[in-house]
Amino acid sequence: MEFSIGVDELQYIVKLFGKIAKRNTEDPTGQINIETTNEGVKFLANNGSIAIEYVSKHSSVKKQGSASVVFNKLFSFIVPFIFWNGSFGAKEVIIESTDKAVHISIDVIFEDGSSSKNKIRLDLHNPFGVLKPDSFGQATFTMNSAIMRTAINKVIYAISPNEVRSAIQNMKIDFDKDYIRFVGTNGIQLSEYKVQNNTGYVGGFSVRYDFMSALQVILPNDDTQLFIETSERKIRAKFGNVYVEGRMDLGRDYPEYRSTLEAFSNIMSLDKKIILSSIAPIQEILDSDDYNRITIEVKNKKLKIYSDTSSFTYSKNVDFNGEYVVDVNGRILKKTIESIDDDELVLKFSDSNGVLIFDSKTQGNQSSLMTPVRRRKK
After folding, report:
1. Longest dimension (CA), the chain
2. Which of 5, 124, 239, 258 is the most exposed place for a label (fewest CB within 10 A)?
3. Do domains 2-123 and 141-247 have the same CATH topology?
4. 201-228 burial string, b = 16+ CB within 10 Å, else e?
5. Using CA atoms, how far apart are residues 213 and 86, in angstroms rounded to an integer?
């Protein structure tokens, strides 16, 4: 095998694969397979749960073949180079395999006109050790990649992948004729984000956290078309030259949550920046042994947020004419508020013992729920 590829493209590939290939092992889950095909040069990694493929169509192939090398060694060599800017840097990478090793070379031109030749030799591993995913079939639905990435960002913070209740280790995605709802929870906090359903698909499924976490990083935040195929056991995503395959969550019913989001009797408007300005500076002084406790109190239309060692009192009146006091986890509160993309928020609640539901006031497209912390006895 012998081919050349642009330094910038190979850097993009290894950074893309860095979310999936394991970094602390030399077994097949920590390797990257490289194969020259009629489509181009195909790169593959599989950590045992998620597989990712990338096909380079701009590389120049001189000799057919395939090889596998340790991903972390390739990554650490390729990433530091500065890509050619018209005056200096590195333009291309030449990769050649023999019976025993893979040889990689890069020529660099420096700002003063001098140059260097950089070469490494990597041990050759069994090219069939990295498991290939199934081929992408027919898309179940298609959507804008930026929409999917935004939805993941707004929901994934509420999921704990190590949660013992396996049914809520995943992200739930529901499609009805009007909306797509993305949901994540760990039993203490919950986030639901909804967008218009323009896909034509109606249904629902749960996807493992690791797959959605990988998509969160590798999806482009633009109008790139994202093709999703679902089957009983697998979920597959394809965009541009990238193909990712992961596992569906099987045999577990996602808990019913919609009734909780609709159970409230009071609404109060809040300014997102002002609330964050009161809780962000005190994150490191909250007491983790006491659930990072802070108290939210409204009395005579005045809002006060305080802990044992800090306090914040807002001068303007809030639009709630009553008394309300609740203890919450300050770290969870910060993540909950940060996830909502709006300057104006609404807090929905019933009483001091019930859940707190935050939503976007302008768009009303995200409901973020958190449970209160039991108040200490005086």
Report:
1. 80
2. 258
3. yes
4. beeebbbbbbbbbbbbebbeeeeeebbb
5. 36
Task: State the residue for tokens 């120049």.
Answer: 60
DSSP letter at 343? S
Element (H, E) at 207: strand 203-208
171, 184 contact by CB (below 8 A) = yes
Q: In the numeric block, which tokens belong to residue 309?
A: 């060692």
Question: Radius of gyration over alpha carbons of the chain, in Å?
Answer: 25
> 258-370: what CATH class?
alpha beta
The string of DSSP codes covering 94-143 is: EEEE-SSEEEEEEEEE-TTS-EEEEEEEEE-B-TTSSPPPPPP---SEEE
Domain residue limits, the chain: 2-123, 141-247, 258-370
Strand partners, 66: 35
Please state which CATH number belongs to domain 141-247.
3.10.150.10
Structure tokens at 300: 């005579």
pTM for the model: 0.88
Question: Which residues are CB-neighbours of 115 under 8 A, at least 6 positions away?
Answer: 107, 108, 109
Q: Does domain 2-123 have CATH number 3.30.9.10?
A: no
d(C-alpha 301, C-alpha 167), whole Å: 41
Q: Residues 63-102: pLDDT tens digits?
A: 999 999 999 999 999 999 999 999 999 999 999 999 989 9
Q: Residue 269 in contact with residue 346, Cβ under 8 Å?
A: yes
